[in-house]
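hey can u check if this looks right to u? its 156 residues, i copy pasted from the old doc so theres a chance i mangled smth
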Amino acid sequence: MIMRTFACKLSLLLLIITGCTSGEIIKESPYAKNIDHMRSKNINFMFTAYDRGIDNPNNDRRAYYKIFIDKVESGRTTSGLESQKKIFETKLDVNRHLLTVQKWVLNKKTGRYVKLNNIDQPKPNFVYFTIPPGKIVILEMVSDKNRRTLFTVKQY
């Protein structure tokens, strides 16, 4: 009984000691290298998009997104599998902006990209965001297999 009590107290003490260390490991941002690249190129906005929940390689189509900023076509992302991150970078004015996306997928039969029907487009397919002075904004869009979309905005 005394040994069990001692073991419990020792376990509790070790838990407290290991949980209170000051040398915590801080995980580096996955965008750290991109931030340096963006600053060197004078770019202040990055959009990334990918699909989550694709569990079969046969369903992982090649795709890209057409990007519209403030209702003007501004370019497109890189191409890749739906499950891979696709990237678009640009320099925007300090202001509030509207980003809208259109998803395009590769038609294997014709070898050409075709716009998905509106019912199959990510929902919602737009987001408002602000570019503050001196900051880099990274907007990430993640869609699930039900076409529901989550936007995340980070500032650096």
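The chain has one domain: 30-155.
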